[in-house]
Amino acid sequence: MSSFTVTPDDLDAIALGGAFLGTGGGGDPYIGKVMAKEALATYGNVEVVDADEIDDDTLCVPVAMMGAPTVMIEKLPAGGEALEALRGLESVLGRKVGALICAEAGGLNSTIPFAVAAATGLPLIDGDGMGRAFPELQMVSFTLHGVKASPIVLADDKGNTAVFGTIDNHWTERLARSAAVDMGGAALIATYPMDGRVMKTAMLRGTISLIKRVGEIIAAERRAMRHPGPALCEACGGQRLIRGRIVDIERRTVGGFARGKATIRGSDEDAGQVFAVEFQNEMLVLTDDAGTVRASTPDLICALDADVGLPVTTEQLRFGLAVELIGLPADPQWRTPEGLALVGPGYFGYGHDFVPLGGTAAAG
Amino acid sequence: MSSFTVTPDDLDAIALGGAFLGTGGGGDPYIGKVMAKEALATYGNVEVVDADEIDDDTLCVPVAMMGAPTVMIEKLPAGGEALEALRGLESVLGRKVGALICAEAGGLNSTIPFAVAAATGLPLIDGDGMGRAFPELQMVSFTLHGVKASPIVLADDKGNTAVFGTIDNHWTERLARSAAVDMGGAALIATYPMDGRVMKTAMLRGTISLIKRVGEIIAAERRAMRHPGPALCEACGGQRLIRGRIVDIERRTVGGFARGKATIRGSDEDAGQVFAVEFQNEMLVLTDDAGTVRASTPDLICALDADVGLPVTTEQLRFGLAVELIGLPADPQWRTPEGLALVGPGYFGYGHDFVPLGGTAAAG
Fold first, then answer.
1. Which of A119, B52, B283, B341 could pair with B24 in a Cys bridge, judged by C-beta atoms 3.0 to 4.6 Å apart?
2. Distance, CA of B180 to CA of B155 (rounded, Å)
3. How far is B188 from chain A (nearest CA, A)?
4. What is the percentage of chain A residues whose pLDDT exceeds 70?
C-alpha cells in the first residue's frame, strides 16, 4: 500500500467506511468528519503514509475520543483538546511525536485523527489498532504486542487534563474511563506511545485505505442505484448474513455502555426465520431462532439500511427498520487465543465459544 | 513557635491530638502512626520547622491520603506510594521539593506526612491547610489564597499513578476522588505545590505543635486520672458543649462519605435534654431538642469518650457510648464569607447560617 493525500472531500468516504467498519458502534463518524473537514480546510490536507515509510525511532501515537457515543453526538469537541492531549504526552515523555495512528478504524475515531493530523502537520499512518470498533481501551492489537497504554493523557473541553501511569492496560481503561465520565462523558486521548519499529508489527495495517475504499464503494453503488451489499462483500471478503426487518428492540445502559438486543424478522431468502443481534455499543453476536450462532465477535457484524444502503449504528436501530447484515472476518490476530481472551465472546459475557464466519455453534 | 525534632515516641501524642482535632473524621490516625513510627525508626527523626525558617523560593508540598476512612482502616498503605506521588510531582514540575506540609491536621493525615518526611529527609513545616479535618480536597486555606491544587499526583499500592491538571480546585476534588475510588478506595497524594513565600501566608500556622500539645495534655491528664476535657478547653480556648449517652445512631454512605446522625441523651448538667450531632465523615452540626444550633462547621466539634477520655471518631460512635463534646473556634479565615462558602453549613446542605461558638440560632 503506498501513501496518499486526503482532502476534505475524501473525508466523506472515510466517514462512511468508518461507519460500516464500526459494526454499529464507536459513535457516529459525522461529528468527527465535521471536525476533520474544518481542520483540513484551515490547515491543509493530510498525508496518509504506509507504515514502512516511518523511521524505526519515530514516536508514533494513537489519538482518539474516549467516552459514550451518545455524549459524543451531543458534544462537538472543541478541537483544541486533542492537541492538548498530544502536547501533554510529549511533555510527559520529553519527546516529540513524529506520526499519528488511528486507534479505531470504526465510528467517530476513524475521522478524529485527521483533524489532529491537519492541525499538527503530522502524517497519519495507514492502519489502526482494531480493524473495526471495540468499546474498551485495551482492546487493541497494541496490547497483544505488549505495548503499554500508559502514559495516557486525557483532555476535556473545559481545560482539564489527566495523565495516568498504570500497571497494565486494563487499569488504564478503568482509570481513564472514570475520568472521561467525570469530564462530562467524553475526552480526547493520546495513548499507546510507541516507536516506529514497534508500530510496524503491532498495528493492523492498511485499514485507513480500507475504510476509504469501503466508503467509495458505498457511494458509487448508491449513485448507480444499486444496494452496496454485494460489492462490499466482494471487496472485503465478507458474506451477506441476513436481511430482515426489526420487530423488537431492547436497550439498557450498563456501566456506561449501550447494551441491547434487536430482534429481526427475516425477509427475502431469510423469510420465515427470526434472528437476534446482541450489542454492547457494537454488534457482537448474531443468532438464529434455533439458537445457532451465525456470527460472533471478534468477526465484524456490519449493518446496512436494506433500503438506502447506508451504514446503520446501534443507536439508529428502531422498530420497523429494514437491515442487511454483512459479516467480515476479523484480523487473524483477533482469532488467536490471546486475541479471543481480549475481545472474544467470553470477555463480553456470552457463553459460546468463538465461531468463525461460515462455522456454526449453539449459543451458550 | 520555634522548630523541634519529632521522635517515634512523639508520634503517640501527635496521633492522639490529630484524632481530637479530626472532629470525628479524617480516619483513625492509628494507621498513619504505625506507618510513621516505622519510617522514623528506619530513616531517623523528623524536623518540624517554623514557616519563617523556610526560604521564599523553596518548593513546599502537602502530602496526604485521599479516600474513604473505612477503606484506610483496612488497607495499610505500602508507604512507597507517598514517595511515588512526591517524585511524580517533582517530575511534572521539573523542580525538587524542599519542604513538606501537612494538608490536614486531623485524623490519619496528621501522621502520614511524618512518614514521608522521614523517608525523604525533608523538613515538615509546622502548620496545615485545615486546622482540623474536612472531607474534600478543596477545603483548605490554600484555596482561599488562590493556590491551585493542580498539578496533583495520586499513587496507589499497586503501582498506578494519576496526574490531574484542572481549571479549579473543585475539579481537582472531582477527578482525584474518582481515581482514588477506582484505585481501591484510597490513594496517596502530593498536591498544592507552592513556593515558601506563598506558604507563609496561605498555611494555617502552628497546628502541628498544637496537636502534639493536645495529645500530651490528653496523655498527662489520663495518667493523673483526670478527664482531659477541662484542660483541653483551657489550652485550646474551647468550651465544653454537652455530655451524654448515645441513644440512637443513623448511618448511610452517600457519594463515598459516611453520613449520619447521633442522638445523645444529656447527662450531668445536661440531664433532661436531648441533642443531635450530624456528621459527614466529620461532626458538623450540634443541635438541641429545641432545634437550636449549639455548634456548627467550620467550628470544631470534638468528641471524647466521657469515661476514658480518649478521642472518638464518628465510626466509633455506637449506642450506649458516653461522650463529652468540646467546641473549638475555627481559624478566623474559615469564619470569613469566603471561608464559609467553602466549608460553612450551606456547602454541606444545612439550612442554617453559621453560628459562631457561644452564639445560637434555630436550625434550618
1. B283
2. 9
3. 14
4. 94
Tens digits of residue pLDDT in A259-281: 899 999 999 999 999 999 999 98
User: Per-residue confidence at B364, pLDDT binned at 50, 70, 90?
Assistant: very low
Exposure b/e, B8-41, CB count within 10 A at least 16 = b: bebbebbbbbbbbbbbbbbbbbebbbbbbbebbe
Which chain A residues are Cβ-neighbours of B165 within 8 angstroms?
88, 160-162
ipTM (interface pTM): 0.84
Contact B160 A175 (CB under 8 A): yes
Cell of A220: 458509487
CB contact under 8 A, B183 and A175: yes
CA–CA gap between residue B300 and residue B237 (Å, rounded): 12
Inter-chain CB proximity B178 and A178 less than 8 Å: yes
Residue A94 maps to which CATH number? 3.40.1610.10
Establish if A222 belongs to a structural domain.
Answer: no
Do B245 and B147 share a structural domain?
no
Cell of A262: 434487536
| Banded pLDDT at A255 (limits 50, 70, 90) | low
Cα–Cα nearest to B207, from B80, B334, B45: B334
Which of B48, B44, B38 lies closest to B77, judged by CA? B38
* Nearby residues of B295 by Cβ (< 8 Å), 6 or more positions away: B241, B285, B286, B301, B325, B327, B355, B357
B331 plus B297 within the same structural domain = yes
